[in-house]
Design brief:
Two copies of one chain form a homodimer.
Chain A lengths: L1 H25 L9 H8 L3 H7 L3 H18 L9 H18 L1 H9 L1 H4 L4 H20 L6 H22 L6 H20 L3 H12 L6 H12 L1
Helix pairs in contact in A: 1-2, 1-4, 4-8, 5-9, 5-10, 8-9, 9-10, 10-11
């Protein structure tokens, strides 16, 4: 019994190692530029041994990308502490940490199917978006969201993706600036929609009311007043 | 000579007909759900005859999707008349006309490669985004855009895509409301970025200054003041 358990652990450990090595490779190059040989070499094992733990290139890449997708989804989990703006800012910090660590892999995940080498990549990124969506609704304290607040949240998640991809392409704007800008953009998009929708208006009023003078949303209101 | 010219015209006309039939099919179903048989039947010709005009399914689908992509890019061409808000609202009207006419095909184009059945689909949608980007910069009168105004425009194009895809999924919000909301969102996103960037601030000030009391941006400013 003991031996069997130990052998099983060995297989799992080796699989974990290969997933970690693949993710490390995907942090430097897009998955479609990484070969199984590259991974075998980096793991210090032979190519056939890689296939012993994963039946094919696709299954290893899919396991690695699924791991990354799960990790990305987890970055949206945030305690209900502090104002909404402060919470979103912490989430954006962890989101950009992820983008920073997994650059080419993140871009490939968003590009979907072909680049990742997995037909399930589209479903995986949709799962991440869905997890992010649920987390944010939880913080907005909206239980049964109507179409307009749903659109605000889904639009904002898309905005975070576009912003992160643009940042990766040359890193011409400091990421801290973009993290704060995304938090501000959430309130801006919600305020635009609030004009048409009482549910969204309630979220905006609550968010603005709970802010302290030095927190993200208060800054934005001051800035907008100055610009317009 | 005359005969040859007439025969060539015939080939081009038949190809045009097949492209039109494919696009008509893609307006009801995603390209990956449409077979060459479906297209042959709708065109009233045999399946082998389709292959006489297009060497394979991929080349026909790619020609159809490229036609749609070109048409979508053209919707962003807008004369320099009226305020920026009015122009963007006209562009959004034509954009949603396209989305309305080409629903499943539009969604597939944004989904990229696999769904369209063409490896070049990612490049095609990138071309559309690039054309939209150049048109908008032209209207903003920005010749050599810095990274922040670039990000605003690219983010907004992404926002229009997310909004259109969400609209297609159930059409739960009237499209006229979304068209106006997108125009408002442009100013909102630009205003957020303007706090960090003088180039964007100039664009925002000019856009707000040229508005009449009843035009899109003026409404937004009034609404935001009321909400916040």
């Amino acid at each position: 019994m003991t031996t069997v358990v130990r052998r099983r652990m060995g297989v799992e450990e080796r699989r974990e190692q290969l997933i970690a090595v693949a993710l490390e490779q995907f942090s430097h190059r897009s998955p479609d530029e990484v070969s199984v040989d590259d991974i075998a070499t980096a793991a210090g094992i032979s190519r056939p041994l890689v296939y012993h733990y994963f039946p094919g290139k696709d299954s290893l890449y899919e396991a690695a990308v699924r791991r990354a997708a799960d990790e990305l989804a987890n970055r949206f989990v945030e305690p209900r502490e502090g104002s909404l703006g402060t919470r979103l800012l912490r989430v954006m910090g962890r989101y950009f940490d992820f983008v920073d660590e997994h650059g080419p892999g993140f871009a490939a995940l968003l590009r979907g199917g072909r680049t990742v080498g997995s037909e399930n990549a589209d479903a995986m990124i949709d799962d991440v978006r869905e997890a992010a969506y649920r987390q944010i609704m939880h913080h907005l304290e909206v239980d049964d969201p109507g179409p307009r607040i749903s659109l605000v949240v889904r639009s904002w998640i898309g905005l975070a993706e576009t912003t992160a991809l643009t940042w990766l392409d040359g890193r011409r704007i400091p990421r801290a600036e973009l993290e704060l800008q995304l938090v501000h953009s959430f309130l801006a998009l919600a305020s635009v929609s609030a004009a048409q929708d009482e549910e969204t208006a309630r979220v905006v009023r609550r968010a603005v009311a709970e802010e302290r003078p030095d927190s993200p949303f208060s800054e934005l209101v001051a800035q907008l007043t100055a610009t317009v």
